[in-house]
Amino acid sequence: MARSSPRGGTVPEPDATLPTSGIVRQRRLSDQVADAIRDDILARELQPGDRLPSERELCESYGVSRTVVREAVRALTAKGIVTATPGSGLSVGRTSIDDVGQMLQMFLHHGPNVPYLQLHEVRATLEVAVAGIAAERIDDAALTGLADLVDQLPGHADDIVAASKNDYAFHRGLAVATGNDFFVMLYDVLGEGLMETRVATFSYDPRRIDVVTRAHRAIVDNLDAHRADGARAAMLDHLTEVRETWVRHQDGAPA
């Protein structure tokens, strides 16, 4: 059963059959109100900056206390969905790509532990596609920058942290070369989340610098020729080898 409001928002009635302790817990009423406000924004197709009802009106609409509404608004403000301006009231937030990226980074750093292989699966899906798009769109300046990173990587053989940063810059540079800011944002999230693993894989065997250099050079060669299929294949080969290296060392097998 749900309470409806004249504005179209609904808040589910608390379920008295749910236990109040143990593994299953009832969601807080403020969380339910926050979801209802968000859904109302989407249903009404409101745009960033559009005014929202006042706290008093929200209390009346959803049949809850001002404390509950304030907690809901605070949660929505933290996510950038709602903006609260003193003297002006509430409005739809102006969330940027950077805001979305920061929320995803917070999830990876402070949320539930995500297994490496799951992150790698997402990374591989993203980066194989990115390599193909970059091959179609890359300009001379971006190509030169990536080629320079490939040439510089062998010089970091005695510094795995520097090698890892070079590797990160190379893969991020591919995302930048697509001209699509969403790819860059997603790579920033995944790339930072995988930095420790990147350092670890370089530490397994000093020969990995040469392996990664050859893989990156194969990708650049395909970018230079604007071969999208070749770039995707080279990236897939590279990331498959990265995954196999990580799995092999987790199993305790020799390099």
UniProtKB/TrEMBL annotation:
<dbReference type="Pfam" id="PF00392">
    <property type="entry name" value="GntR"/>
</dbReference>
<dbReference type="InterPro" id="IPR011711">
    <property type="entry name" value="GntR_C"/>
</dbReference>
<protein>
    <submittedName>
        <fullName>FadR family transcriptional regulator</fullName>
    </submittedName>
</protein>
<feature type="domain" description="HTH gntR-type">
    <location>
        <begin position="27"/>
        <end position="95"/>
    </location>
</feature>
<dbReference type="Pfam" id="PF07729">
    <property type="entry name" value="FCD"/>
</dbReference>
<dbReference type="InterPro" id="IPR036388">
    <property type="entry name" value="WH-like_DNA-bd_sf"/>
</dbReference>
<dbReference type="InterPro" id="IPR036390">
    <property type="entry name" value="WH_DNA-bd_sf"/>
</dbReference>
<feature type="region of interest" description="Disordered">
    <location>
        <begin position="1"/>
        <end position="25"/>
    </location>
</feature>
<keyword id="KW-0238">DNA-binding</keyword>
<dbReference type="InterPro" id="IPR000524">
    <property type="entry name" value="Tscrpt_reg_HTH_GntR"/>
</dbReference>
<dbReference type="InterPro" id="IPR008920">
    <property type="entry name" value="TF_FadR/GntR_C"/>
</dbReference>
<keyword id="KW-0804">Transcription</keyword>
<keyword id="KW-0805">Transcription regulation</keyword>
